[in-house]
Amino acid sequence: MSLEQFYLYIGELIMYFQVIERDLKIIYTSITSNNFYVQYSDINNLSLGQMVGLMKEKQYFSSNEIHQLQKMKHKRNYYVHQSFLSFVDNDHLEDSVEYQEVSNKLMEDHNFFENLCIKVSNLSKQFIE
After folding, report:
1. How far is residue 51's CA from residue 20's CA, in Å, rounded to a whole number?
2. Cβ-count burial of 23 within 10 angstroms (0-12 exposed, 13-18 middle, 19+ buried)?
3. What is the DSSP letter of 33?
C-alpha cells in the first residue's frame, strides 16, 4: 500500500468511527427518551467509551456487538495516537516491515469497520425516518 493510500484508508476509518459514534447516540436517544433533541444534546459530548457503556446497560445490542464496539474504541485510539509512530522515523518507511504490518492491519480494520458502520447507520436510520 502506498503512503497516499494509507492516508486515504486511515481517513475513511476515522470517518467510520465518527459516524458509528454519532449513530450510537441517535439509537440511544431514540430508545431512552420521549424528547429526542433534549436527550441528544445531553449526551452529545459523551465519549465513545461512555456511549458503549450506556448501550451495554440498555442491553439493546448483543454481547458480541458490544464487544465489537469496545474493540472499536481501542482501535480508534490506536490509529489516532500510535499507528504512525511505529514507522514514521524509518528512512524507507514504505518498505519497512513496521509500515507493512500497520498497513495490513489498517486494511483489515478498514473493511471490518466499514461493514460495522453500514450496519449501525442502517439501524439508526430506522429511528430517524
Report:
1. 11
2. buried
3. -
Contact call for residues 89 and 71 (beta carbons, < 8 A): no
> In whole angstroms, what is the distance from residue 109 CA to residue 19 CA?
15
Residue 35 DSSP label = -
Residue 108 contacts residue 6 (beta carbons within 8 Å): no
**pLDDT values of the chain reduced to their tens digit, one per residue, 129 residues:** 999 999 999 999 999 999 999 999 999 998 888 888 788 888 889 988 899 898 888 888 888 988 988 999 899 999 999 999 988 898 898 999 999 999 999 999 999 999 999 999 999 998 876
